[in-house]
Amino acid sequence: MKQKMIRGLLSLSVVGLALTGCGTAPAKDPGNTSAATTAPTAAPKGEPTQLVISTWGFSDDFFKKDVYAPFEKEHNVKIVLEIGNNSERLNKVKQGSSKVDIIYLSDYYAQQGIEAGLFEKIDRSRIPNLKDIYDLAKAPLGEDYGPAYTIGRLGIAYNPKTAGKEIKSWSDLWSPELSKKLTLPSITSTTGPMVLDAASLVAGSTTFNEDQAFAKVKELNKGVVKYYGQTSEFVNMFAQGEIAAGPIMEVYVKDLKAAVPETKFISPQEGAYAVMNTVNVIKGSKNKQLAEDFINWHLSKDVQEKSAKAKVDSPVNTTLKLSDEEAQGITYGADVVSKLHKLDMKFVNQNLKSWIDRWNKEVAK
C-alpha cells in the first residue's frame, strides 16, 4: 500500500546565517555558558547539586574526563549516571522508577518519550550554542524538545576481498555475489526502519511504499546470514568472515577496520540515512535550568571538537574545523549532512507495531 513520505533530504545552514527560534541567554545568567565563554574563577560554594543523567555508558572514560568533570567543577555539580540501552532506560522513566534529570536517546526512542509526555519543554534562550549547530540538529522532534548533539549516518560497510563486487548503492545488497554473505538490522533496531525505507527506494518508489518494501526485503531473506539486533553481532560476524557486507552506522566502522583493515564504508548513491541522538530534560526535574546549561555545554565547540577528534561522536557544531585525518570515520561537514535522508519518526512510531508483526510473519520466519 502507498504510504506518506517518511524521508526527505536534509537542509542546513552554516554558521553565520540567521537563527530562527533561538534567542540569546540573559546577560546576567551565570549558568549560561557558550563555547566562547571562559569558566568562572570559582564554582558556587556549598554541597554540590546532584544531576542524574541517563545514557548508554559507551566511551565512559572520555565522557567523565572531558564532558562531565569540567561541568561539575564549573557548576558545583555531582553527575550521577544511569546506564542502559534506549528501551531499558526509557521504560524506567515511564514506570516512574527513575530520578533522571537528563536523558540521552536516539530520535527513534525520543519520539516515544514525547508521545508519552515524559519531557519538559526546553527554554531555548538558555541554550545559546544552538545558534552554531546544523539546522537539522536544533529541533529534530519539534521546537519544544531537545536538540540532537550528534548526527551519524547509516551506510554500507563491506570487505572488498570477500564481497565479490564493489558496492556503490543500496541496490547492490541484492546482488547474487552477496548471497549468504549479508547481514541486515532487525526491524526492532534503531536502523531497521531505515533499511525498510531503503528497500522501498530500491523497489522504485519515491515515497515509502510498505508493500514494495517488504516484498523487496523478502527477496534477500535466503541470503541473509542473520538479522542483527546489536552492532557487536555485526562486528563479530564480520571479523570471523561469516559476512562480507551490511548496513551499519559509520561510527562503528573503526571497530570493523580493527579486525579487517581493508574494510570500506560507503554512503550509497541513493543517500545514506541520518541517525540522530538527542538530549532531553525529564518532566518534573528539579534541576531544569541546570540541565539546560548542561545541554548547552555539550553543544559547545570545545566538547564537540574533543568528541569528534576522539572518534566518540560526530559533531553538530559547525564552528569547529577538522583535518581530513581527524574527520575519518565520523559524519562531518555540511556537504555530507545535507545529503542524508531523515525518517519521520512520528510516522515510524505510528506504524512500527504493524511493521514488526509483518516482519515476523513475512521476513524473519
How would you summarize this macromolecular structure in one to three sentences?
Helices cover 34% and strands 15% of the residues.
Describe this structure in words.
- The chain has 365 residues and is an alpha/beta fold.
- The protein is 34% helix and 15% strand.
- The protein contains 13 helices and nine strands.
- Strands 1, 2, 3, 4, 7, 8 and 9 form a seven-stranded mixed sheet that branches. It has a two-stranded parallel ribbon with strand order 5-6.
- Helix 1 links the parallel strand 1 and strand 2.
- It is globular and about 65 Å long.
- The chain starts with 48 loop residues before the first strand and ends with a helix.
- The relative contact order is 0.20.
Keywords:
365 residues, alpha/beta, 7-stranded mixed β-sheet, two-stranded parallel sheet, 13 helices, 9 strands, 15% strand, globular
Look at the helices and sheets and give the structural class: alpha/beta
**Rg on CA atoms, Å:** 21 Å
- How far do the termini sit from each other? 22 Å
SSE pattern = EHEHEHHEEHHEHEHEEHHHHH
